[in-house]
Amino acid sequence: MAGHLSGRGDPMTQYSKLSVRPGSTMQDAEVKMLAARALSVLASKATPRPAGVQQHLEALCDAYTSPDEDERHDTILRIRQEGIAPRDIIAHIIPETARLLGIHWANDTLSFSEVSIAAARLQETVRALAAKDQVKRHDSLGTVLLVVPRPEHHTLGLFVAADRFRRLGYEVDISVSQHPRQISDRVLARRYAMVGATASSRRTLASVKELVDSIRARVPRKVKVVVGGSVMDQKLDIVALTGADYSAPDAQAALKLCGLTISQDSLLERTTAN
Fold first, then answer.
1. For residue 199, how far is the Cα from the chain centroid?
2. Under 8 Å between Cβ of 242 and 235
3. Comparing 34-48, 147-161, 205-219, which segment has the lowest mean pLDDT?
4. Helix axis angle, 202-218 to 180-189, nearest 10°
5. CA-based Rg of the chain, rounded to a whole angstrom?
6. How many CB atoms lie within 10 A of CB 139?
7. What pTM does this model have?
């Protein structure tokens, strides 16, 4: 995936441009740098697609760029009526739709503001679907803290990851753009099974290092910190650069590296879905 960071036509490159906010006054060079970011590996082309995904993508792009809220609800409802589970909509269809929106922006068929608004609407859909499709479990295996460090702006991938951690048996707390000391305060106050930080560029890794240093200095017990996100495409020694314990491509790999249990319910759910 390292090659994805160059080339205007690459889907992951186009998808990454959703992280630039509307109304930005950044210089062209910085915009190009931001556009080179890829979002989370949760949206990578390696992710398997359930049957019927492709035919829905353009319809979803149209629905999420439309001001008609009913159109969005109707489109999701049609997908669910075809037997596609909410977990697959969250894990596969929504990231693919976001990528396709980025491609349309790169090809000048959608404006930047249209794509940014659509991305925010997709995030709301992730929240709504996750809330309606909570997996019932008798006991939580623990709680993970997922962090979008400064200066990251995108949060769609974080909510997709949060849903996956919940399905693997864990409660999830979320931190967006908090100061490292605020985050270490949270780690002090609650016994987290692990802390996961997402990064899409080397620039963000500096913020992750601040976070790791703050946790190590202020939290007496050992808390594993795992870094994920598209920064992994850049062939960097992420652990050495940040002081984190591990880097991981997805939720299940992160839990495995930390030696944490994965819910048998989630394994059964995946087997049933396949």
1. 10
2. no
3. 34-48
4. 40
5. 18
6. 7
7. 0.63
Tens of pLDDT, residues 118-148: 888 888 888 788 776 665 554 689 999 999 9
Length of the chain: 274
Of 213, 109, 187, 126, nearest to 162 (Cα)?
126
Instruction: Determine the distance from the C-alpha atom of residue 122 to the mean position of all C-alpha atoms in its chain, rounded to a whole number.
Output: 12
**Can you name the residues that pair with 145 across neighbouring β-strands?**
173, 195
The residue type at 38: A
**Type of residue found at 127:** R
Token pair, residue 21, equals 């906010």
Please enumerate in sequence order all residues whose Cβ is within 8 A of that of 114, keeping only pairs 6 or more positions apart, or say none. 65, 105
Paired tokens of 163: 């849903």
Percent of the residues in the chain that have a pLDDT greater than 90, as a whole number: 30
What is the Cα–Cα distance from 166 to 163, expressed in whole angstroms? 5
Q: HSE on the CB side for 177, CA within 13 Å? A: 5
Peptide bond just before 50 cis, omega within 30 deg = no
- In tens, the pLDDT along 62-85 reads 888 888 888 888 888 888 777 777
